[in-house]
Amino acid sequence: MDYVAVEKLKWRSRRSMLELDLYFERFIGGGGFAKLDETELLAYQHLITLDDADLLLLFQGKEELADPQLQDLVNKIAQQNFYKEV
């Protein structure tokens, strides 16, 4: 994925729900996003198309995805510490 596509993914990570913004900002700012390989970036691209309410339930561990690759990505993002300054 080229630089412009990656930057667009970061921009599309902005959500209308503060809690989700915190998850995504911590993941991107903390270096987790930069460590994603091409396959994981494609999974991330799919993940951010999900509804905000569904994403929040996934990050809180109240729901799980059937796709193990997507679930692994959700787990990586959900591990971000809300209270740590980036």
Q: Can you tell me about this structure?
A:
By secondary structure, the chain is an all-alpha fold. The chain has a single domain, classed as DNA polymerase, domain 1. Helix content is 59%, strand content 0%. The chain is built from five helices and no strands. Helix 3 packs across helix 5. The termini are far apart. The mean pLDDT is 92.
What are the main properties of this structure?
86 residues; mainly alpha; DNA polymerase, domain 1; 5 helices; globular
Q: Helix amount, in percent? A: 55-70%
Pattern of helices and strands: HHHHH
Structural class: mainly alpha
Q: What CATH architecture do you see?
A: Orthogonal Bundle
Could you please say which CATH topology applies here? DNA polymerase, domain 1
Per DSSP E runs of 2 or more residues, the count of β-strands stands at 0
**CATH C-level category:** Mainly Alpha
Oligomer: single chain
Tally of individual helices? 5
Compute the number of structural domains. Answer: 1
Largest sheet, strands/sense/barrel: none
Q: What are the segments in which pLDDT stays under 50 over at least 5 consecutive residues?
A: none
Termini gap? 25 Å
Q: What's the alpha carbon Rg, rounded to whole Å? A: 12 Å
Instruction: Based on Cα principal axes, name the global outline.
Output: globular
The CATH homologous superfamily corresponds to Flavinator of succinate dehydrogenase
How much is the average pLDDT?
92
> Which range does the strand content fall in?
under 5%
